[in-house]
Every structure is written in structure tokens, then in C-alpha cells.
Amino acid sequence: MKQRFSSLDVKVVAHELSEALVSLRVANVYDLNSKILLLKFAKPNTRHQLLVESGFRCHLTDFARTTAPAPSAFVARLRKFLKTRRVTAVSQIGTDRIIEFQFSDGAYRLYLEFFASGNIILTDSTLKILALLRNVPEGEGQEPQRVGLTYTLENRQNFGGVPPLTKERLRDALETTVKKLAADQAAGKKIKKKSQDELRRGLATTITELPPILVDHVFRLTSFSPAIKPSEILNDDALFDSLFASLDKARHILEQVTSEATAKGYIIAKARPNPSSEDGAPSAVDKTKDLLYEDFQPFLPKQFEDDPSLHVLPFEGYNKTVDEFFSSLEGQRLESRLNEREAAAKRKLEAARNDQAKRIEGLQEAEMLNLRKAAAIEANIERVEEAINAVNGLLKEGIDWADINRLVEREQKTQNPVAQLIKLPMKLSENQITLLLGEEEEEEKDDDFDFDYGTDDEVSDTEAESSQPKAASKKLEVDINLGISPWANAEEYYGQKRSVAEKAQKTVIQSTQALKNAEQKIAQDLKKGLKQEKPVLQPIRKPMWFEKFIWFISSDGYLVLGGRDAQQNEMLYKRYLRKGDVYVHADLHGASSVIIKNNPKTPDAPIPPSTLAQAGSLSVCCSNAWDSKAGMGAWWVNADQVSKTAPTGEFLQVGSFMVRGKRNLLPPALLMLGFGIVFRISEQSRAKHVRHRLYDIDKPEGGKSASEKPAAASGAQTGDHDSDDSDSENEDENNESQDRANPLQTGSKEKQEEEASNSPEPPSDQLAKVDLGESSSQEQAPQKGKEVDVGQKEEEEEEDNEDAEEQQEEEPPKAGAPTPSASSSAAISRSSTPSVKPGAPASKAPPKRGQRGKAKKIAAKYKDQDEEDRALMESLIGVTAGRQKAEAEAAAKAQREAEAAAARERRQKQQERLKKEIAEHEELRKVLLEEGIETLDENEAMELSPLDEIVGTPLAGDEILEAIPVCAPWSALGKVKYKAKIQPGNTKKGKAVKEIFERWKIAAGRKGVVDESSSDVEKMWPREVELIKGLKVEEAYNCVPVGKVTVMMSGGNVAGGGGGGGGGGGSGKGGKGGGKGGKKR
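Request: output the structure for the sequence above.
Response:
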């Protein structure tokens, strides 16, 4: 089995990495173990992961791997130098097995060595080593490598370039091979390999750019025999020309492999000895599981193609080929380790069960033995009494215990029936003897007590005759207490039997609890062990384009998008708000701008009220109302009512928009979100899910929805705004009360079409002259719209107010400015009016009494003082320093004012430039809205249509591809199988999401919860559990748009969060029981 890269593999992988990684930046570096590193590269909309195993492999990977909890010293040093650096070049060093990465135009270089033990070396632009994976001592043909030394490249294979393949070079190579073989034979070295490999080995050492497997391939293609000796080729010109043609063909194949951006790859595999047999037709995945990977190449070798026992698996892209090869082996190793741990846990549990069973069985055997002993005593009561009396009589006579044993032994030889009951030696020290009793009462024979004293020979003959049947007879050994009667001895054994029975009963009860505790302990040990083991490799899921926003699919099948910050709000408006879409927002600080994507084919189709309510709930939950726990209502408008055209003299910041026309109010939203898991199914499985989805509707329905509240309705009110302010306010209050009474009331479509035909859509310049009376801020300037600030922080608002005040100090207030700016200008003019009144007297007041005489005296005193004397006197008393200081302060103040004026001028020019760009964008957007043209990217357009592939509850037979976490209003998750309710609380969202995942994983381990057949939608399925376990909590909780939460999950629920059944609430039950029986977490 191939385990490390060849020079050809290094060449092809370096070529593909150069195409894929150049211009990307290093996002981070991780270590998986002491020899494997993971480098993450990224740029907008592009991410790659590079796996490097020192000395063995280097390739892009599509599988997620568990990284080390803390970086090693080498990885920390790599992060210090390479993080955020841009990759500028990736290449192979000559034809050696070394790949060079250049960062920041060669400021840093990373070298990956794939020979011997391998190494990873980081150098600066002068090749001075800054960090390396392992220090290399100086050896034969090896320069030392450590931090501070210079990394040399001159001695690398073909560093100066690959020489061209000529006949002279080939002849020199063959002559060198012949001389080396002759030298080896003269030195007496044994040639272990076959003679037919002489040519192959000679070419591999002399023409190094051609790997041996490629040479074998072209030999088979050109039918050139590799068994020909090099000396024969040198002597035969025809063989020489044929060999040169074969090698020239190999050079062409080598150039063809790297001619395209991605090279084809081939994995050579053979069938397993014992393939896994499963019912049904095997899938492609099952077929690959029954194969053992042996080799991978960037071309299909002829020697493998002709072998019928081998299977060839083609792949597009050599990095994918290598990733599949090594990741499959790695996954098999990980899976086997996990299976070993689970088998060890099962063995421990089985051992605990066997131990408890043995204890119970021993107690039951002891109980039966005591019962048998008592029964044996009762069955042989007379003989037991005779034995007790005989032994007690000997003891009373004062005979020594040893003599008593010898006496009984002699009596046994004479076939004394009482002596034969006694087992020697007797336990006289414990006042006990052991009797061999039959379990049934023995029939007494008349000759049992007829003592016949014969000679020793007769006794020995009798003993020999009777030894065989005596040994065959089954006797029960019973200990008899000499101090009590036989009945008392039997009663003691009955008492022991009862005590053992009670103990056995208690043991059975306690063994159940002991087994349960053992199972829990073993499960904990297994869980702890599995945490130490890396999980089975899972492919990296590529996020869809809308996952960068706050998103969900409404209960009616509409895609709803919300911005996370001001930049995303701006992106939603500029790139995704199109004709037929609906803009939803709330008048709350921090509320997100939410848009509902309508079907681009039928932009006039109505948006259902439930979808509008769910979008409004999301906007409110993303605002400060979540933390204050005070719910309010949102509002919605059509896409053509939102623009970036600011009123004259104003500038809209990023994330702020102008809304013109009537706002349609929504009822107050519940502060209730849901965290759930939706699944992406295959295209074949999508046909089973019949859903009322927006993108399945070709024609709009006849009924009219809330989104079709026409601009004509608002236009009908335009003539009513010439009254005074109080009338406008009352009218607004009345309109608001009417809307809140029935905010989603729909009108007749025919009436709307008639009004729309009578009043065409006005252009943006005409909209600026229409007063729609939306709020009290439009009372003084009825021709302007309402400004909506979205995602702006308080500090930014204060800076904007300061900039506006500075502008208004220089410019007079304009008549068309909106109310906030107009009111501030009026306040400034009122405060400055008293100081600049034209009627103020210009002459000074007459001097007070005594001041005129004092002035005359001063004039007389200094009448002879000239300017020079005056300056000298002022310098003596310090007046000059004060004047200079005042002049310096005045100059600094003037400079500051000049700089502030220049800054204001720059801001004004910048705002004018932005206004010009916004005006151009608005003109283009207006055209796009009128014509209904979509401007989505190719990927976005491709991924917008298959929203039906995302389902909340898969059906039996569906092929589940991915699991996607989503956070949405609770009412939108009615058909989601795995969900949990989220309300405002004090728990951080990361901890809450981790708790939800733990609950689902624990539920998957319970008996009867997982349906192995994947047919019951109310239960968890193995594929669903596998995908949920593969999700990372760190990536999943990013979809939650709020900070502090409280998790509500029902106690008996397995997957759902709203009181659903065993599998998690199914399609109809999940949303009903959420309020009852919910358990706070």
C-alpha cells in the first residue's frame, strides 16, 4: 500500500496548489498531532484547508478534523510569522520531493520535505531558518538543520532545472549503470533483486525526472521489454532508439499531466476478503467500503489497467484523489478505534453481569446444599445419633483424639457401619465430626450389625471387594455438632438455609441496582474515552450564500433575510432587494433590516400575512427589545418605497435608508425564537415533499394579500395634508389605530388595479414633493420622506449630530431640510439672534465720574515716552510675555479653525461624492425595479431555486445530504423535527446551543428512540443523529442573532422543543405544546 508521495505526486500537487492557493491569505495554523498540521487559507467567498503530514503527504482536504486544544510551540511560531500573510507562489524544488510556499513576495518561505523522516521548515527571504518541526544533525550527505542556520537548496535534485532528454544523456545514463553493475560484481556484492530490474533501477537513478512507475507504464505501451540488460541496449542501435522513444513518450505524458489547472487522479483498489453484505442494492458508498485502497496516480498505469483483480476509481482533481485515499484510510482507523472502545465497554458490562449472576447462583446452590444436608440428617437420624453417641462415649473415657481416629479407621476396615459413616480425620478440636450420609433413607440389613471378626487377610480381601461399589455410591458430607442432638443439627441447617435464601433475595434486588450503576459508570468511561478519540471524518459543508445573513424559510416557503449589522443591511438593500420583495423594519434601536424574497417570475404575487408577521418578529427580536423584554410591532413597505436618496443637505450613513409612502403596521411581535436543524435532501427526494412553496407557484393567486396595500391608498391621502399640524397628528393617530385594529386586512384586487392604472408610479423627483404625513417629524417639511436609521450605534449618532451642527454654523438653514435638521437650525438661529441685532448702538457709553481726570494724569506722566521706552518698560514688568502668549494662542486657535474648516470641506466633498454614487445607483436600481431584472451571482441564482431541498422533517426513503442549523421565529419552525424554543434570559447563546446539542445526543442514546429502519418520522434516524453529532457548536450558534437567552425544551421530548412526540414533534405537533410543560434551562 502506498503511504508517501513520490516526486511525480509532489509535482502534480504543487501545480494544483499553485492554482488554488495563490492570492489567498493564511487564516490560521493548527496541529492535529505531532506530525500533522492543518493550514487554513481564505479570501472573500473562498476557503481552503491544507493538510500536511511531515514526510508523507500534503493536499487540500474536504473533511473536518478535530484540532489540538492548544497549539504547540512550532505552530505558535508559524502563526506569529504567517498569519494573515498572502500566498504568492507554490512550486516544487527541482524534481526533488520538496514543496516551497512563498508568502508576501518571498518575505517568508515554507518548505515541506517528503523524504526520509520529513520536515517542515520556515525561513525568511535570505533562507535563514526561523522555525522547523524537528532539528536534523549533520550526517553523511545531510547538512545540519536548526534555527539560525541557512537552508540550502543548491544540492537539491535538478535545482537548476531539468536537463533535456537527449540520446547522449541516455547513453551516458546506460554507461553509468553498466559501470556500477560491474563495480558491484567486482566488489562481491550480492545482487538481491532480479536481473530484469537492472534497466529500471539504472534509469531511476540517472534520469530522475521520470518515476519508475511511469517508465513501466510506457514500456508496456510501447511493448519494450524491461528485462533487456543495459549493455545489450548500448550494443544494439535499434534497441537504443526504441528505449529513447519510450522515454520521450514518458516525458510527453509528464507534461500532459500538468498542462491543465487540475489533473485527473486514479485510485487503484482491490476487493476486501470479507465484504460487508447488506440487504438491498449496494450504493456507491457501500461499494467503496468494500474496497481496499492500494495506490493513487495522476495517470492510469497500464499494469493496473490490465489486472482484472484491481478496481480503478477516477477522480477530477488530484488533491481530491489524495484526500479521498488518505482520508478513507484515516477514517477506517478512527472507526476501528471507536469500535474497539465500544467492544471493550460491552465486555466490561458483560463481565459485571456474569459476576452478579455467579453470586446469585452461588447463594442458590448454598441454599439447596443446606436443605439437602438437613434432609439427609432427618433421613438417617438413627445412624447419626449412634455416631454421635459412639464418639461422645470415647471422649468421655478420656481417650486421646489421635487414638480415637486410629480406632475408627480400624473399625472401618472391619466394615463397621457406624465407623463407615465417619469421615477421617475428625474435627474433634471444633467438637464436630463429618458424616457421609445418603440423601435417602437406607434400608437396614440384618447382617449390618452381625460383627464377623476375621483375620487380616480376610479383612483385606473384603476391603478390596467392597472398595469399588463404595466409591461409586454418592454420599453427602455433613458436619455434625457433637454437643447437640441430630434434630438440633438438622434445625441448624434449616436456619442456614433460610438465612441464605433471604440473602439471595436481597442480592437479586441489589444486583439490579449494581448492574445499573455499572452500566452508568461504563457509559461514562466510554464517553470520556470517545472524547479523547477523534470522531469519524465528516465532509466539510459548504455554506449557502444566504447563510452569511440572518435567515430562515417561513412557514409559507419564502426566504427571509436579515442583516447582522449596518454593512449587511446595506448589502441586502443594494444586492438583494428587488421588485416584488418586501422590506420589514421596526422603530427600535438595533432592529435589523429584513427583506422577504418574492418569486422573481411573479413579482406581483402577494406575500402571506403569516410570513410578514414572522419577518417582523425577527426584526423586533434582533433589537434592544430582546434585552428589555418589551415587545413592539414592526412595519413593512414595498421595495420601491425604500431608497438611499437623502433629503437636501443631509447624508445617509451606511445602513440607513429613506422610506417614502405609507408604512403598513404589523401587530406586536412575541419575543420568542427557535433554534432548529433543517436537512438538505437530494434532488430525487425533493419530489416527495409537496409544499406550498413560493417558487412552485407560476401564477399569483386571485386573493390579495397584505403586501398589496397599494401606493394608491397612500396617494389618496396626499391631498389631506394641507391642514395644520394638529389635524395631521390626529389623522396619523386615527390611521395608526385603524391599522392596529386590523393590521393585515386586505382589500380587493380589482380596486387596486383600477387605482394603479389611474395613478402611475411617480418618479423619485416627484416623490420628493409629496407629503404623506407619516410621522410628526414631517410636519415642517411635508415634501420629504422618513429617515430610517438601521444598525447605528449611539456614538455614531452623536458624531453625526456634531457634524451637522458644524455644518449649520456656516450655512444658513434650508427650507427643504427635514424636521430634525430644521429644528436644530432654528434653535441655533434663535440663540445667536441677541448678539447680532442691527439696532444696537455703535458708540461707547460716557466715562464714569473721575475716569476723565485719571486719564489726563496718565497722559501727562507718559507724554515724553516714545515707543522704544514703552517696549522696554513693558518687557520689565512682563506685559510683553503676556501679549506674545495671547498672540500665540490666537494663532493656534486660528490654525485649529482652519484645520476644522478643511476637515469639514473634505467631509462635504466626500459626502457629495457618495451622494453622486448613491444617485447613480438609485437610477440604476429604479430601472431594474421597473424592468424586474435580477442581478444575482451565478452561485446565488443557482442556490435560490433549490430551496425545496431544505426540509424540516425528512420522509422515509429520503437521501439526507446535510444538516443545517437555523434560528427563526418560533411560528416558522412548525414543520421542523429538531427544535428548541428560545426566549430572553441570562444564558449565553453558545452555552445554550451546546446544551441543546447535548440533550439531542443523550436522547439518541436511549433505548427505542432511534428508528434503525428510518421509517418513523416521529423518531430519530441514524443518519440524522450522525449529521447532528458532526455539527460543531462553535459554528452552529453563529446563526442565533441574540446574545442572552433561555432555552425551553419539554421534558419528555426527544428531538423537538415544543412538546412533540418521541422523535421530536413531527410536522404538526412541535409548535403546539411549547408553552405547556416546557422546562426552563
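The first strand starts at residue 25 and ends at 31.
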